[in-house]
Amino acid sequence: MTSQSNLMLAARLDRKSVGGLKALLATMNFAPGQVNFANPLVPFGKLENLHFARFVILDDQTLDDIRLYGLPRHEYPLYLAFLCDFDGDRVEFLKDLANCAGPGLRRVFSFCDDFTDGSDLLQWIRDHEVPVATSYVNWRGRTVKQVREEASLRQAIGTHLRSNAGALDGQSAEQIRADMRKFVEAETAAGRLTLTPPEPTPWGAKIGNAVHFVGVFPLIVLLSLPVALLVCFRIRPLEKTDPEFAPRPDPEHASQLAILEDHEVTNQFSAMGSLKPGLARRWVLSYILWVIEWTARHLYTKGRLARVRTIHFARWVFLDGKKRILFASNYDGSLDSYMDDFINKVSFGLNVVFSNGIGYPTTRWLVADGATDEQKFKYFLRRHELPTDVWYNAHPSMTAVELERNGRIRQGLEATALSDEAAREWVQLL
């Protein structure tokens, strides 16, 4: 199995350079929110292992919210962030990235404070990498190549079925599967279809994953009691006095975000904000994200995060000494449907993470209320959202559910035998 990796770099910007940088980034798009895969700066389409990428300027418009606590506004750095989700090894990906887009990246990064003509590009990227606190992959091991090959497989089978619908009348599900296997074998032999076998999982990765599973879980359990005590005796009293601030987002800001959305079935989301003052919030959130990281690595690996099936990739990243946090995701559907999905299915999960941010709708015991006040939650999230200047999706028009279905079609074809019930379920996938 090929593992998925991620990259995020954040480099400081002078506010005077933002206009020129945005103008350059805009040349990578056909129109706002619609990237040119073959743009001359960073031709994303040439990076065969890249799932998603984005350039976003981290310009937090909510820094004044700290005044709700009687504290002065802190002027944090302005950053350019570059995020990628990709298959395989980070070192190899960076080499491919530099070979494919080195000159273009140099032009983009030239707007950053400490990038010069003489900078070693790869070393500069490594120096500005920011580690993720938590990342989520919808289906671990599913590569870009697999996505594309399985989409072609489903399309070929669909075309064949439409052309031969009458010939399948009266056949059992297993007979239909046998006919489809013969068809696919013929198409593969003719070179019209390719189904590349998955790469074997390296032993080092297997051992590392097993050690992480076994080694981290006892620590999670061990620390759960002090965290619970912290919630009871520190967080709960704070919840009763923490100011709530979720006004309707500025119409111009909302309009700017809307221009970038709904150009296809999948969308991007980038949002950031400041944590509530005090160490208690930082400690609790660090623990919660650590737990989510463990569950996303070992439990939620096949198509869903808890009961949510619409996220392809997501990450949480601490910034500025854990005083601020960035959340970035790639999800299916509109933003409203995305938020509704979470509110209806895992509102407690939203609360335990986002309630540590300034102004979040009031919670009880960290898990209750909060996001269940739907309008306030949506205002809060929209207000913290950032416009993503450039966003790339290697498999547009394919939802996470469709990717899963395509994979199950292939699995059913490659199975030596299926029960009658399993064969009927497989035919329904077609």
Explain this structure to me?
This protein is of the alpha+beta class and 430 residues long. The chain contains 12 helices and 12 strands. The protein has helices at residues 18-26, 90-109, 121-127, 144-163, 173-189, 203-239, 251-259, 279-298, 335-354, 374-384, 400-414, 420-429, and strands at 4-13, 29-31, 34-35, 50-58, 78-87, 134-137, 266-274, 311-319, 324-332, 363-364, 368-369, 388-393. The strands form 4 sheets. The protein has a 4-stranded antiparallel β-sheet with strand order 1-5-4-12. The protein has a 4-stranded antiparallel β-sheet with strand order 6-8-9-7. Helix 4 packs across helix 11 (400-414), helix 5 (173-189) crosses helix 12 (420-429) and helix 6 packs antiparallel against helix 8 (279-298). The longest helix is centred in the middle third of the chain and has 37 residues, at 203-239. The radius of gyration is 24 Å and the shape is globular. The two termini are 26 Å apart.
- Low-pLDDT stretches are none
Rounded Rg: 24 Å
Overall pLDDT: 95
Strand content of the residues, in percent?
A: 15-25%
Identify the quaternary structure here.
Answer: single chain
- Terminus-to-terminus distance: 26 Å
Largest sheet: 4 strands, antiparallel
Succession of helices and strands: EHEEEEHHEHHHHEHEEHEEHEHH
The backbone outline, from C-alpha atoms, is globular
Query: Strand order within the widest sheet?
Result: 1-5-4-12
The tally of beta strands, per DSSP, is 12
Helix content: 40-55%
Number of helices: 12
Structural class: alpha+beta
